[in-house]
């Protein structure tokens, strides 16, 4: 029998939760009995929540290298961050757990202000867990050793990462004498995929998940492979048709001006590169990356999530491209536009094509094993060069780079994806899929309500997991309302959990 002190804590928390907001717009979620009524509510003052204000303690947890065998393998230290406990209603207050992405966990913690800002409203403890093989959470003691070959990288999988989170949470709750604390999962992008999948795979570990910009359907034979690049293109066409056409025409101009060594030297100078180009494909990839990232972070306010950028950066890029008089060299216009992304501050002397500012190392391995996301570029709707995805070519590249062949059907075998509506409706609950339609990854996510507890919150002008970002004084009304809806839904999950706990204790 559970100690009486725990049941008292649960009883005390139910009235606390009942005063939190419960209004959910009908357009965002179906009405259910617990959401009846509208209460006055305002989000925390954004001026009080800057990156420097997020206080946490850095801790390490010894993890098994392989959770699914009993082989004697070396363990590794997983880094995780724990927020202040002064507002946590222990021993049964909620735990807000962020599922770490493909990078340094401190970077994600600083860019996920929503979790920090709402935690005091729920008297919740905040935990950010770093993904294995990223940041400081390196097996074998170092990144060089962890990334040495296919054998050492073989434990970099989503299944192992989710098991890390489950083991960490179980141990943390036991050590804190908080076994009755409900866990709510959060994640954006790949982290959002992990949050949704963890809710499905470990329903006894967490009561719900907010999966923001989570493309869990961006896999073989589920969404058309043209979806991502068509949506990037649509974002530019939306701002300016002439800008869209200029970018579409620039690829041929790039090939024409890049014929021969001397012309490659001239292109290198035109685009202020730190070294001479070996071929035009290097420059094409650099430009394509900028356009894709701009679509992802087309936020309505200035940001530095990927790069320092102005508000509505695509609008600014197109304004720059369109501002040149007739007769101006097309690639000069393109360089001026893309400089908004790569050099908005004006402090970059030259551009290093090898420099990856986003810390994405490791994702190449995951993309060559289980995270195979086919992508093509259509001739009619895309501003990018026409390209048809070839699995054979993709496989050859993975074998060349990593010595492995992809398993494109494994991720949907493991987590589902085909006939996702039936699977989620029959076997899932308490998941919010939030997406903005400016985000090209939204094309691979869940955009319709599946049930009364599998909810899609879709905003027309939202970009990549904008709802999880720190609140600002420039937040538009639709973003404020979206966050209110998310708070209300999470509040309902926690309220139901405590009600069920109290009912089971009184039986």
Automatic annotation (TrEMBL):
Pfam families (alphabetical): Peptidase_S28 (PF05577)
Superkingdom, natural source: Eukaryota
Signal sequence, renumbered to the chain: 1-19
InterPro entries cross-referenced by the UniProt entry: AB_hydrolase_fold, Peptidase_S28, Ser_carbopepase_S28_SKS
Alphabetical list of SUPFAM superfamilies matching this protein: alpha/beta-Hydrolases (SSF53474)
Keyword terms, alphabetized: Glycoprotein, Hydrolase, Protease, Signal
GO molecular function: dipeptidyl-peptidase activity; serine-type exopeptidase activity
GO biological process: one example: proteolysis
Assigned protein family: Belongs to the peptidase S28 family.
PANTHER family: LYSOSOMAL PRO-X CARBOXYPEPTIDASE, PROTEASE S28 PRO-X CARBOXYPEPTIDASE-RELATED
Protein name: Lysosomal Pro-X carboxypeptidase-like
Organism of provenance: Phoenix dactylifera
Organism placement in taxonomy: Eukaryota, Viridiplantae, Streptophyta, Embryophyta, Tracheophyta
Gene designation: LOC103713662
């Amino acid at each position: 029998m559970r100690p009486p002190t725990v049941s008292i804590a649960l009883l005390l928390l139910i009235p606390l939760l009942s005063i939190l907001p419960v209004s959910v717009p009908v357009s965002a979620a179906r009405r259910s009995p617990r959401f009846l009524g509208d209460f006055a509510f305002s989000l925390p003052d954004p001026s009080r929540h800057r990156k420097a204000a997020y206080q946490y303690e850095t801790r390490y947890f010894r993890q098994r290298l392989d959770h699914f065998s009993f082989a004697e393998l070396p363990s590794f230290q997983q880094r995780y961050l724990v927020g202040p406990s002064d507002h946590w209603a222990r021993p049964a207050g909620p735990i807000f757990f962020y599922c770490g992405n493909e990078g340094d966990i401190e970077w994600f913690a600083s860019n996920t202000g929503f979790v920090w800002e709402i935690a005091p409203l729920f008297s919740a403890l905040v935990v950010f867990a770093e993904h294995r093989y990223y940041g400081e959470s390196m097996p074998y003691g170092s990144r060089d050793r962890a990334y040495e070959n296919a054998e050492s990288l073989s434990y970099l999988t989503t299944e192992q990462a989710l098991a890390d989170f489950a083991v960490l949470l179980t141990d943390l709750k036991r050590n804190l004498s908080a076994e009755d604390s409900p866990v709510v999962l959060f994640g954006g992008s790949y982290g959002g995929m992990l949050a949704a999948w963890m809710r499905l795979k470990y329903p006894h570990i967490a009561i719900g998940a907010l999966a923001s910009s989570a493309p869990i359907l961006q896999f073989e034979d589920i969404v058309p492979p043209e979806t991502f690049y068509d949506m990037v293109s649509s974002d530019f066409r939306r701002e300016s048709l002439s800008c869209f056409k200029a970018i579409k025409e620039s690829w041929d101009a790039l090939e024409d001006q890049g014929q021969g060594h001397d012309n490659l030297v001239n292109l290198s100078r035109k685009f202020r590169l730190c070294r001479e180009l070996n071929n035009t494909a290097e420059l094409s990839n650099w430009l394509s990356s900028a356009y894709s990232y701009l679509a992802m972070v087309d936020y309505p306010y200035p940001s530095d999530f990927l790069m320092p950028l102005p508000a509505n950066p695509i609008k600014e890029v197109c304004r720059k491209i369109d501002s040149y008089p007739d007769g101006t060299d097309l690639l000069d216009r393109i360089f001026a536009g893309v400089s908004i992304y790569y050099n908005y501050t004006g402090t970059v002397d030259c551009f290093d094509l090898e420099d990856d500012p986003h810390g994405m190392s490791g994702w190449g391995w995951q993309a060559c094993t289980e995270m195979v996301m086919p992508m093509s570029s259509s001739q009619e709707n895309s501003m990018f060069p026409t390209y048809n995805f070839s699995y054979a070519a993709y496989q050859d590249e993975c074998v060349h780079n990593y010595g492995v062949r992809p398993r494109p059907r494994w991720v949907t075998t493991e987590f589902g994806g085909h006939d996702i509506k039936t699977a989620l409706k029959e076997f899932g609950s308490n998941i919010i899929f939030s997406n903005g339609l400016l985000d090209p990854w939204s094309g691979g996510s869940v955009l319709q309500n599946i049930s009364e507890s599998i909810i899609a919150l879709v905003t027309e002008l939202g970009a990549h997991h904008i709802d999880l970002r720190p609140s600002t004084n420039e937040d538009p009304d639709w973003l404020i309302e979206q966050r209110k809806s998310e708070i209300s839904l999470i509040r309902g999950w926690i309220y139901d959990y405590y009600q069920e706990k109290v009912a089971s204790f009184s039986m």
